[in-house]
Specification:
Blueprint lengths: L2 H20 L58 E5 L13 E5 L5 H14 L9 H29 L7 H12 L1
Parallel strand pairs: 1-2
Length: 180
């Protein structure tokens, strides 16, 4: 992004962050009263509903006045404008200075690889892609953790097992096994 675009985008994102702090949390009516109701916003529609009527003492409802600043709408927290992409041809329309790409979730591995190669050539930022090196490091770390857990559980199981006394038959069998 050019310096001017960078500063405008950063200021817009910062302004949005500051404005969002002052906004109330919009909660579903009486979600605080009943466990079965989640806090996900649902518009109150009841005829006598206190929230819909905006009665004092009840939580505020969503309205246009709480909307974010116009310059920051549609911006990713990085300051770029998000653009959804389904194939490599769509990358030709993108301005790498102001826009970043998000690969659609329905895109397969082969197309995704083409999109990534084309995006690197054009120096376009891809928002929903982890570098393979980072992903590989995470996988290795997870495998090591799983191995440690398995070893610990095996050691605990062996420690908890009561040791059996060797009978004559077992001793003879072990001796024969050692000789061969």
């Amino acid at each position: 992004m050019s310096e001017q675009n960078v500063t405008v985008a950063q200021k817009a994102v910062e302004l949005r962050r500051r404005v969002k702090k002052k906004k109330p949390d919009f909660v579903r009516q009486e979600s605080w009263r009943y466990k079965r109701l989640k806090e996900n916003w649902r518009r109150p529609r009841g005829i006598d509903n206190k929230m819909r009527r905006k009665i004092k003492g009840w939580p505020v409802t969503v309205s246009v006045g709480y909307r974010g600043p116009k310059v920051a709408r549609g911006l990713h927290p990085s300051g770029y404008k998000e653009v959804l992409v389904h194939n490599a041809e769509e990358l030709k329309k993108i301005n790498p200075k102001t826009e970043a790409v998000r690969i659609a979730h329905a895109v397969g591995k082969r197309k995704k690889a083409r999109i990534l190669v084309e995006a690197r050539k054009r120096k376009i930022r891809v928002l929903n892609f982890k570098e393979e090196k980072e992903a590989a490091k995470e996988e290795v770390a997870e495998e090591k953790e799983e191995e440690k857990l398995e070893e610990e559980t095996e050691e605990k199981a062996e420690a908890e097992k009561p040791k059996r006394k060797k009978t004559r038959r077992r001793r003879k069998r072990d001796e024969k096994h050692d000789e061969s």
